[in-house]
Amino acid sequence: MSSQRDVAGQTASLRAAPDVRLGLRENWKQFSLLMLTNAFVGGMVGIERTVVPLMGSEVFHIASTTLITSFIVSFGVVKAFANLVSGQLADSWGRKRVLVAGWLVGLPVPFMLMAAPDWGWVIAANVLLGLSQGFTWSMAVIMKIDLVGPKGRGLAVGLNEFAGYFAVGATAFLTGVLASHHGLRPVPLYVGVAYAVIGTALSILLVRDTGGHVHAEGRAASPVEASLSFREVFARTTFRDRNLFAASQAGLVNNLNDGMSWGIFPLFFTSLGLGIERIGILKAIYPVVWGGLQVVTGPLSDRWGRKGLIVAGMWVQAAGLALTAWGGRYVWWFAGSVLLGIGTAMVYPSLIAAVSDASQPAWRARSLSVYRFWRDLGYALGALLAGFIADRFGFESAILAVAVATFMSGATVAVVMREAPPAGCALGSAGGRGLDGHRVP
């Protein structure tokens, strides 16, 4: 029944837009609008990167690193589950409705952070932020992939993630500067109010749904592939298809180290005597490099393939983390942040494009939602793991433990993943190979 409703909804979308064409050039206006919208989505996370961990230690005087990083746990768990249902909701409700719902949920977040009388309010605000991000960012990337079709997935993802993560870094820097001159709140959080209002208005007034593009791309899909249930998509993405498994575990570990850096780095640098403004620079350079380079690495993954960029990117991230832990000087911490950004830029668009390669248009949104579920669960696991290790063995040990996990994840991709056919030849259309070597139907 669910599949029938999905197909009916896609058919209705196509009737509403009979001249649907795929491609970046053909859809550049909507694509650009979605990039701008995703910049505001990323900015909503950026307001927390520098300010919120320091609020825990300096405003609420929390001594436990594990407790301070609990706001990332609430964010990561809720965002992971929001990602999980977002694909199903996108197929049944429509992409635009889910996007707008995500923005409406996120509107109270900056106000809650400004007014928070205790740490519980910060955790509650991050529950809403996780739900909002799960819906808004998922729809932004899915809708761009819908618009461009199979030949430009890497480029589409690279541009989407560039907009989002460049905004994360720029906002982390901006809020760091504002906090150094005006305190940790409320002034830095006014930026979040502006992002939430503008992002909501753009999504309601100007963004159009992309269901017709999905139907146009999926006309040639086989009935068997189109009728996959959510349970089947979850199993295939999690472990049955070797490429999807490799991507899911790499995504989880990638965000595990991002969750660790989000919560641990400001506290680590503060313990070494750095001021808020210099911490803001270190916290900004990582997502700025990550965001900016994805304009290059996304298209490169279309030409060179996904696997090599993913493996090398995970290993570059591991090197950046090790340099940060062992550097001992600002110049080495800066270099470590740059390496972390370069490695993540190599990995992020390549992983999403690899998942898109291995899935059919009829169930691609659900497969991406499952991948994003495992990926963003890494935020919570990274915060918990790093907080636990830091409380017992120190910040350096926490950073190095995550560096080892990141290196091992890259090695797993090197062994398990098989390079997909070139641009537009989705592995899922012909069936992939499971971890046991048997063909997945």
Automatic annotation (TrEMBL):
UniProt-listed InterPro entries: MFS (IPR011701), MFS_dom (IPR020846), MFS_trans_sf (IPR036259), MFS_Transporters (IPR050171), Sugar_transporter_CS (IPR005829)
Top-level taxon of origin: Bacteria
Membrane topology label: Multi-pass membrane protein
TM helices/strands, residue ranges: 31-47, 59-78, 98-115, 121-142, 162-181, 187-207, 308-326, 332-355, 376-393, 399-417
Domain Major facilitator superfamily (MFS) profile as annotated: residue spans: 30-421
Any one cellular-component term (Gene Ontology): plasma membrane
PROSITE patterns for the chain: MFS (PS50850), SUGAR_TRANSPORT_1 (PS00216)
One matching Pfam family: MFS_1
Entry's localization field: Cell membrane
Transport as UniProt keyword: yes
One GO MF term: transmembrane transporter activity
Tagged with keyword Transport: yes
Keywords: Cell membrane, Membrane, Transmembrane, Transmembrane helix, Transport
Protein name: MFS transporter
Organism (species): Myxococcus xanthus
